[in-house]
Amino acid sequence: MKIGMIGLGKMGANMSERLLKGGHEVVAFDLSADALKQAASKGAETATTLEELAAKLSAPRAAWVMLPAGKVTNDTIDALAKLFDKGDVIVDGGNSKFTEAEGIAERLAKKGVGFVDAGTSGGVWGLTEGYCLMVGGTKESVAVVEPALLTLAPEGGYAHVGPVGAGHFVKMVHNGIEYGMMQAYAEGFEVMARADEFSLDLHEIASIWRYGSVVRSWLLELAERALRPDAGFDGIAPVAVDSGEGRWTALEAINRGVPAPVIATSLFTRFASQDKDSFQLKMVAALRNQFGGHAVTLESGGLGMETETPAP
User: Fold this and answer.
1) If pLDDT is split at 50, 70 and 90, which confidence band does 162 have?
2) Strands 132-136 and 114-121, how do they pair?
3) How big is the CA angle at 93 (ends 90 and 97), to the nearest 5 degrees?
4) Which end of the chain is more exposed for a tag (fewer CB within 10 A), N or C?
5) Rounded mean pLDDT of 197-218?
């Protein structure tokens, strides 16, 4: 299929490339000329305006918005809707708040334009490993973009989870769980870091736990990478940003009467990271950098990136 990709950051650029490798045509749009040039080098057709992007797509037109959640995403969707017609579909693949989805869908429906909220997980590794996709929307709208969804996701990694809003709701909870898992690893590794009498090699321990251990996971694999001697772990400041989804998950747990102490505590620990010199928060910051390419704050006060290029 032919699909527009709006936003060529660390997620959008890799998703475009994965779609191209899967045999799809991509019309790419970004405000950065360098990002457009890079997309063109991978085989994408480029557009310098939304009007140009819409004109280069064929009916039923489909465009994937991969921008930071909030005003920039909502404004882009509204602008694109003015250019789309009945039967066309707009996908929001960012970490937007699920409560906004229904209102967006209603606005688009006035023109007959479909809306799909696609919770997208995979970070900087998605290009090679694929993206787990949790999708909300009508069957008709999802069907229009399903060829792209099946290419972006690894086998078994995509599901149409429910009506509009369900995709972003499930992704929100996914990220809330992620908060708790990272915090558990961080706390355990700090306990071992403080066991001076044993002189434990934390990298070695993370490495062996990947094989046969009941706590093995992809996050543990990333912990092993973050703790490698040359990965720069000691230079990371213990500051872990609260990007929103953990907070929303905790609030939903409260609203629905669900006890969620692990998620809530991991969220509060991130708040505390602004003032506390904490090994745990250094670990959480390092893990966020490993899976998502999120910038880490260095002890010097600047920002750094330590993510390695995924192995083929």
Assistant:
1) very high
2) antiparallel
3) 100
4) C
5) 97
The DSSP 8-state label assigned to residue 96 in this structure reads -
Residue with the larger pLDDT of the pair 269 and 45:
45
Q: Which two tokens stand for residue 303?
A: 């920002």
Question: Rounded to whole angstroms, what are the CA distances from 244 to 18, 173, 177, 218, 237?
Answer: 27, 11, 13, 22, 20
Q: Would you call the peptide bond into 259 cis, given omega within 30 degrees of 0 as the criterion?
A: no
Model pTM score? 0.87
Instruction: Note the pLDDT tens digit of each residue in 107-140.
Output: 999 999 999 999 999 988 999 999 999 999 999 9
Q: What's the pLDDT at 111? A: 95
Q: What residues act catalytically?
A: 171, 178
CA atoms of 132 and 72, how far apart (whole Å): 24
Residue 30 and residue 39 in contact, taking contact as beta carbons nearer than 8 Å:
yes
For 107-150, the three-class secondary structure string (H helix, E strand, C coil) is HHHCCCCEEEEEEEECHHHHHHHCCEEEEECCHHHHHHHHHHHH
**CB atoms < 10 A from the CB of 74, how many?**
18
Other C-beta atoms within 10 Å of 23: how many?
9
CB-based contact 293:10 (threshold 8 Å): yes
Q: Which tokens sit at 132?
A: 């787990």
Q: Is the pLDDT of residue 174 over 80?
A: yes
Q: How far apart are CA 300 and CA 201, in angstroms?
A: 25
pLDDT at 236: 85
Alpha helices in 30-70 (DSSP H): 33-41, 50-56
User: Distance of alpha carbon 175 from its chain centroid, rounded?
Assistant: 9
Contacts with 146 (C-beta within 8 Å, 6 or more apart), sequence order: none
